[in-house]
Write a structure and sequence with these properties.
The protein is globular. Strands 3-2-1-4-5-6 form a six-stranded mixed sheet. Strands 7-8-9 form a three-stranded antiparallel sheet. The protein is 36% helix and 21% strand. It starts with a strand and ends in a 21-residue tail after the last helix. The chain is of the alpha/beta class.
């Protein structure tokens, strides 16, 4: 029996709350073996990002090839890509290896507000990575930025942006509603069949560092285990809601602390 395995292609967060560290914790929490290919090193903590060191594109390729040549990868999660050269390397590698599922989280800005994707890289991400994605997982500001539009504030506006993102080539779009307002945080799963609203009570906490990374990784974990996309998204939504609700059990840092990835265990 093959162990469900997922690969995260993303940046490293030195404080452990987001990036590949969050992705690997998520995979482990959901019973999936995690591998990683690091695109960038960040000097980062709960208060912000103080430095970014991009990994050379050829070495990003080498990491991806090393994993795929040996491990049976059920799903790939792509997070912080940092630069155009990395996007080119990732696109070429995934085209070569043809993974069954690709979850693309278009990481553009950290929870602290620091920019994590060069402006000139946005077009490359849209043209080269989105068409390879089984599902992309932008939050409300990221969805607007990808389309060069204002942030949608109504359900109809969000669904409309989701359809326009589908037109860029992704098979599905999950627009995350954590940046919205109201008593509930509602995510929208948009496919060619229509849109599904997934609501959960909004949790009052400042400890939300790594939420977006972790939700996309949870979706990838479900896909790696063979779950259909809608089930993987629903399970990921339930799990991330629990991780946010348990975040205040931690006292980590002095800014936006991490969510509790392993809340089911301690």
């Amino acid at each position: 029996m093959t162990t469900p395995t997922a690969l995260t292609i993303a940046g490293s967060d030195s404080s452990g709350g987001a990036g590949i560290q969050a992705d690997l914790k998520t995979f482990a929490a959901l019973g999936v073996y995690g591998a990683s290919a690091i695109t960038a090193l960040t000097a980062q903590n709960t208060k912000g990002v103080t430095g970014i060191h991009a990994v050379p594109a050829a070495f990003v390729t080498a990491q991806i090839d090393a994993v795929f040549s040996d491990l049976d990868v059920g799903a790939v999660k792509i997070g912080m890509v940092a630069q155009v050269a990395s996007i080119d390397a990732i696109a070429s590698s995934l085209t070569r290896w043809s993974p069954r599922h690709v979850v693309l989280d278009p990481v553009m800005v950290a929870t602290s507000g620091d920019r994590l994707l060069a402006a000139e890289a946005v077009e490359a991400l849209c043209k080269k990575l989105i068409p390879l994605a089984s599902v992309i997982t932008p939050n409300l500001p990221e969805a607007a930025a990808l389309l060069d539009e204002k942030v949608a504030v109504s359900e109809a506006g969000i669904e409309s942006q989701g359809r326009r993102l589908l037109a860029l080539g992704a098979r599905a779009v999950l627009i995350k509603g954590g940046h919205g307002q109201g008593a509930e945080s509602t995510d929208y799963l948009v496919t060619v069949e229509g849109a599904i609203a997934l609501a959960a009570p909004r949790v009052a906490t400042q400890n939300t560092h790594g939420t977006g990374c972790s939700l996309s990784s949870a979706v990838a974990a479900g896909l790696a285990k063979g779950e259909p996309l809608e089930q993987a998204v629903r399970n990921a939504k339930a799990w991330i809601s629990g991780a946010i609700a348990a975040a205040d059990r931690f006292s980590v840092g002095h800014g936006h602390g991490p969510i509790h990835h392993l809340h089911k265990f301690y």
